[in-house]
Structure formats: C-alpha cells, structure tokens
Amino acid sequence: MTDLASFSAQALTRGYRSGEFSPVEVLSACLERIERFEPKVNAFVFVDREGALNAAQVSERRWRRGDQLGPADGVPATIKDNIAWSGFPNRQGSLLTADLPTAFDAPAVARLKEAGSILLGKTTMPEFGWKGAGDSPLTGITRNPWNLSRTSGGSSAGAAVAALLGMGAFHLGTDGAGSIRIPASFCGVVGFKPSYGRVPSYPLSAMGGLAHIGPIARSVSDVAAMLSIISRPDHRDPTAWNTLPPNYQEISDQELKGLRIGCSIDLGFANHVDPVVASAVKHAAAEFARLGASVDEIDLAIEDPKDILATLWEAGAALILRSYAREDWSRCDPGMARAAERGRAISGANVIEALTRKRVELSARLNRVFESYDLIITPQMPTAALPAGMDIPPAGFAGVDEWGNDWTNWSPFTYPFNITQLPAISVPCALDGERMPIGLQIVGPMRADELVLFAARAFEAAVPPAVLDTARSGLEAA
After folding, report:
1. Were both Cys, which of 2, 193, 336, 345 would link to 175 (CB 3.0–4.6 Å)?
2. Ordered structural domains, the chain, with CATH
3. For all residues of the chain together, what is the average pLDDT?
4. pTM of full prediction above 0.90
5. Catalytic sites, residue numbers
C-alpha cells in the first residue's frame, strides 16, 4: 500500500468510506513521518499524540457507523503556534510568552474540530511572526527538507515543512506580509492567503487588516477543501464576511479560454529577481496561454509600498511587546525588538494615514489593473530558499551584491497583497538548478478567491508531475 501519509484529503475520505483503511492507520503513518523527519527539520512546537489518537479512534467509529461529520472527518491537521487551540499554550515562537494552556479555540481551529479533523500538534514560527525566515528564540531553526542548510521560510515555517513531508494533510497558517506564501514557495507546496475576512479570526492580530488566516497543503484541491471548512462563520470576528462559503473543492474543471491574465515579473519595483525565477514564471505564463487564457506581460509600475507595511507592522510590533517589561525585550529576536522600538515612535496619525489614504491609493491602482485583467501572475519569491538562520541573504546570494538590512527586501511580491487584502496563492512551478522549488503567485481581485483557486488548480493539473511531485522529492531530500 502507498504510504497513507502522502494521500490527499479526498483520497483519505474515499479510503475511510470503503473501509480500505482507517483514521487510526492514517494517524499512525503521519506519526511515523514525524518520528522520522522531525529531528532533522524541527517543524513542531509539540505533537499531541494522545489527543490525536483519541480523536482518530472516535473518527474511526463514526466512519464505521456511517455517521461521519463530513469529508474532513479523520483528516490529520496541524495548527500554527499563533492560533489559539484550547488546552495548549500559544507561544508564538517567543520566550516571553507563558507556557500556559489557552482557554478557547480560535474560529478556524473550532471549525476543524467540528469537521472531525485530527489535530496533530502546533507548528513552528519566527517570534510573533515578525519575519519571513523560519527561526525563533523559542524553537530554533526550522529547516527546508529540500536542503537542510536552507530556511523553510516563514512565518508559517513548520506548517509548510509538515505539508511537504506528509506530517498531516491540512495545515493552518497565517499571512501578515507573506507568511503563508513565502514558506509555501520555498518548500514547494501550495499556500493560499484568502481575501481578508474570508476566514474569521479571533483574537484579531495586532497587525490588523494585514493578517490573514489560510490553508497550506500539498495540492490546490486540499487547500480548497480546507478553506471551505475554516471559512465558516464565527460571531467573534466583526471584520469577517460571516457568510457561508461555497464548496471550494467543487471548482469547475472548465477550460481557461477567455480568462485574461496579466503577468508581471517585477511589479514595477522589485529590483532583484533571479533570472531562473523570471524564466520559470514566463514559462508558467506560456502554459496558461496554452490552456486557453489570454496572457499579456504588463508593467504595473506601482511604487514600492514598503512604507505602508513598515508603519502598520512596526506599530503592531510595539503593541505586542508593550505587554512585556522593557528589560525582557533582550530575550526577543533582535529584529523583533528593533521593529517594536521603531514602532513606539510611530504616531497614530501615521497609522491612520497608512490604513486609509495610502492603502486606498494602492488598492485603487490595482483595481484599475483588474478592469483589464481577471488575474495577475508574478514570481512568488525572487529567489529560491535562503540560507537557514539568516534574516538577510549573504552578499552575492542569487547574484545580488547587497540585499540591504530589511528582510522585506527579499520578499517584494508578498506584502502589496496584504496591504490591499487581495486573494493570492503560491503554487510550485519549477525547480532551480540546485533542485530548490520556485513558486508562482496568482492574485485576484477582492473576493475572487474561487477564481484564484480555479486558475491554480488548472495550472497544477497541466504542469508535468515530475516538476510538482513535491512530496516525493522533498522526502528524498530529507
């Protein structure tokens, strides 16, 4: 039998229904993967083996009686360590946080439980999710299975690694400046940042409307299935849509004929894009054209909105660390402490200006593009995964003499779509010369989540399996 830990959620459901295998057997396969790979990659803060086994046994009894809770019943899942899970600590990658159980489930966790998913454990992240690399003072470095000397990316670091290695099928992440899409791209899996408000959140992030909750998985279909579950309403989030979501897994398989796609290699301001990455994205654009879409290379000519991000992000960092004594800041990741220090000097007027005038101007610019195009495709990251344990690549990495002093310099394709709150997905599209994954980003207008998923699934189905067989390749690399 093929390793059950590599099965999609849909394949697991079919197996449970037919009696070919059970949730307990699938859990055992996932735990075996964790035992094998966790010492190498460091993807988990903790694994709840006892709780997962109890949940798997209960799920197995439901399937045998024929009263399963739905298509996710018995599907193993992980939770990022900044999302509340009752009975367990919420450490957020920090030595400052208390090792005490949380008293409630965040909305997405509650929905997964209601759907019968088996929660395996909490996955690693950089401190308070402040950067796009996969290391923290609390748990150390989370390594990339393709090459253990490279970062997993962050901040949903452990979630992407767990997805790649079959340590669960569904993985819950967050994305405030690329934190789902960065590790998805670096690890060669699928990560979706839905439109803001599609997935309810509680408590709301200190980063405000920048922060989205979304799924990471090995396939677009699994991402879609998970999104249908976690998007269900929750009254605790006044900013959420709180309308019943469609079944995103039932996305049409119709052709892309008539779809208008704009391809931007640099968004108008990204200065350092590895030529191998640019070539891979151009090949992806040609693939969309072959599938029937109308594809144009476009010049977005937008100005780098990093100042908007910095204002909101650093003010949020100051808000987070305000709860802790200043003498304790020395225990933080130095970059987090510096961001909070800068945030203390940001005025309320500047925050409001970034939230309103500047963000609206950027949104209006992109909305004008969507008058001519249904979707935009870009590189997800300008390079493959960076060296592990570094916030900034070394001089000469990817042929760039100097990367500056801010991690966002190597992630220009992510934060514009947090600022504008648009749906964006990262799907694997190629491997570079060192067999490291390259991600393609597909962006849609606000609330066009279904269209983004449709295009991503069509692309995934068309690309040769040898390129996108990330589960197998990642396991070999580890």
Report:
1. 193
2. 4-477 (3.90.1300.10)
3. 95
4. yes
5. 80, 155, 179
